[in-house]
Amino acid sequence: MGAEPTQNNIIVGFTQMDRVIGGSKSEAVALDTKEKFVQEGATQEQATSLSFQIAGALKVLEKVELNASPRVLSTPQHQFSAALQSYVAEQAANSGKIQPLPLGYEAKFDTDDWLGWAGSFFTWSRRLIQGKHPLPKPMPMGTLPESVNFAVLADWGTGLYGAPACAQTIAKNSLNYQVLLHLGDVYYAGLESEEKNRFLQYWPSLLNTKSYSLNSNHEMYTGGYGYFDALLQAPSFKSNQTSSYFALQNSNFLFLFLDTAFVEHDFVQEERGWLLDAIAKAAGKKIILFSHHQLFSRLDAQGPNLRTVLADALQKKQIFAWYWGHEHRCVIYDQDSSSNLFARCVGHSGMPYNRGDVAGFPSVPGQQPCWKQLTSSPDAPSSIVLDGPNVYIDPSDDPNRYGPNGFLSLLVDGAHLKEIVHDPEGKTLYEKDLC
User: Fold this and answer.
1) Whole-prediction pTM value?
2) Which fold would CATH assign to domain 142-433?
């Protein structure tokens, strides 16, 4: 199922890290690590701070790994922890300190390896504070045909599980896609090597099809350099996309593609003005938004900034639909009563995710795989969420712990818009004519 594993698909979690720099050895290893940082040029204060950050990262990684197999890829929404995973995976790949898993490879190293790598970690980690990649100016408004089909993936950049299978299905192009879109997240922290080996290596290649990708929190964990300098400079993207937020339109629809990660779960000031101006000039077209982060969520936290910026447009019912990722689930929300918005989370394309938080909700009758019915909350309308085992997880790692992967098709035909949720092999799991 999917592509053969490569050395770039390396699992680094709490279990692998704690085996070397945690447990009963942690105090002695921390002292040796700090000395390595000082040898690399860190002050005593910097070395102590970095050691504390590593200890904190282990705690974050341990929490993420609860109720999950240590041999299945997981990563937190936490900059330093995800960046540490990227660093260790990179070092393990370069040194060959890996061992095969049923899918992918496990970082396999000892204390001497870590202390050797720690000598360069101080310098490597400086990229976390070197600042963000300069933000390109938005590109001019683009045009789309009156009939155009999108394949939409989100949180897909694992190179594992259902991600390669989704790509292989899309590459068959049975629905005649003209636009391939990723809503962001390449793991662990969007390094240039990760953009190449977990994303571009598997990205579908189709003639007469344009590819686009949105910025994300994981890609900004190392300043966005991999996203802007590797992904957007790759041949599949370079001729289509020069900025992280942009717009495409035809006679009936205005599609706005947003950067909600350069400033975490928010817009940069220039983007706010650009976005509100584009909405004001939509001239009766139905407005479709795409972003990495969610406007609201029934199962996760959300910040208020996106809603605050778009409060007037939402109140005036100017936004027809919004598609996002970030949460590693597929959630179909009922039409929001206050804004008439159709909202969808489609962040289930490549990352395994724990099913435990929807276990207590009732199943929608007659639906296989299972859809669970979620009641509304003060922040979000009622919804259905895709559930069931992940068939791409090895049986020894208990596929029943993890929800299924998949992708979305959007089919535009004149004034009509249809959405279809597929499993990675292309089977239709849900479809709806929105207009």
Assistant:
1) 0.96
2) Purple Acid Phosphatase; chain A, domain 2 (3.60.21)
